[in-house]
């Protein structure tokens, strides 16, 4: 048995454009991902010679067959030449339905951690390909590098972005991604652009107007945050965010957060905490150390 703590970081979509709907029902997107030094933590205990997979605490209302952590573990487990299992303990900090990648990040961390701890031997590309079946955002978390994404989110181009401080605000509501993309009022006609033009242009989120209409809590949170800094929604919501040049300015605004809103301040980073942890674990193994 071995136990190791693995981060499942949050992400932000610095912009999100919906370019059209494909014949299969999925949407063509262009978006820009950056990671945050804030997220969930998975504590993994490996079980050799056993196929047992457990997650604690269980997520309310989410059975194992729908839980992305268990689904990711089972997908990887099916690739192993000999039985191995795991007991996973989740420290949950990222809200569900927040648009900051909680479930997708947890799934990616499960794949990366168990691939390493089970000695499955899959490379990053293979893990990312597995991740697409779990969710469009899973591959970017698996790769662990800030990226420009196209397609349904699976076509990734690494980028290097300014590492600013972000204030993320979560209104008291849950936004269902599937419902937003099924809504006939969602704008789906933003022209595709080259990356350099996108980086130089005005950043926006095509889902923001619809989400504000369906969820007044998001509109209210964004209205409050806009009083202090340029602000947008991330993903399909519900979280909204603003960038600051230093931590102290972000925390000054966080201290003014109205009742009914939750929030946190975190640094945006180009290399995810998960990628850094994987490197540390591999360096520790090479040096004969135990990392826990």
Tell me the Rg in angstroms.
19 Å
The CATH class: Alpha Beta
The helicity comes to 25-40%
Total helices: the number is 10
Overall 3D shape: globular
Give the tally of structural domains: 1
Strand content: 25-35%
CATH topology: Ribosomal Protein S5, domain 2
Structural class: alpha+beta
Order of helices and strands: EEEHEHHHEEEHHHHEEHEH
- Taking pLDDT < 50 over at least 5 consecutive residues as the criterion, the unreliable ranges are none
What CATH architecture label applies? Answer: 2-Layer Sandwich
Largest sheet, strands/sense/barrel: 10 strands, mixed
Average pLDDT taken over every residue: 94
Strand count: 10
- State the end-to-end CA separation: 12 Å
Please tell me about this protein's structure.
The protein is of the alpha+beta class. It has a single domain (1-292), classed as Ribosomal Protein S5, domain 2 (2-Layer Sandwich), CATH 3.30.230.10. Helices cover 32% and strands 29% of the residues. It is built from ten helices and ten strands. The protein has helices spanning 68-77, 102-117, 124-132, 138-143, 177-182, 195-200, 208-214, 216-225, 247-254, 273-286; strands at 3-21, 27-48, 53-56, 84-91, 147-151, 155-158, 165-170, 231-233, 240-244, 262-269. Strands 1, 2, 3, 4, 5, 6, 7, 8, 9 and 10 form a ten-stranded mixed β-sheet that branches. β1 and β2 form a beta hairpin. α1 packs parallel to α2 (102-117), α2 crosses α3 and α7 packs across α8 (216-225). The protein is globular and about 55 Å long. It starts with a strand and ends in a 6-residue tail after the last helix.
